[in-house]
Design a protein that fits this description.
single chain, alpha/beta, Transcription Regulator spoIIAA, 3 helices
């Protein structure tokens, strides 16, 4: 991926996004604690960015607090309805732990 300028990012509460002309959605996560409310709002943002298409997602993770059980369950149910495929990039440690918990790897 070419470098994305800050001005080209679509800002969200839990992540900033760039939707490229090949149909890939890039997500740059923020260290905001995920809740059912802000995950729901984020899904609406993604759908507005992609005009309702279900894109593949490349997410650049950062350390963030572990969401509560209800949010993890909600996110797990919504992911296949929101993204066609997902790849994650993170540094070793907390981000990987959170994603393993969230997706039950």
């Amino acid at each position: 991926m070419k470098s994305v300028a800050e001005k080209d990012l679509i800002k969200g509460e839990i992540a900033d996004y760039f939707y490229d002309n090949t149909g890939i959605l890039y997500s740059f996560s923020k260290n905001t604690k995920r809740t059912v409310k802000n995950v729901s709002e984020n899904i609406a943002l993604v759908k507005s960015i992609t005009k309702g298409k279900i894109p593949p997602l490349l997410i650049y993770l950062c350390d963030s607090p572990i969401p509560d059980k209800e949010t993890r369950k909600f996110s797990t149910e919504q992911l296949p309805l929101t993204y066609k495929a997902m790849a994650m990039v993170s540094k070793p440690g907390l981000s990987q732990l959170i994603m393993r918990i969230l997706f039950k790897f």
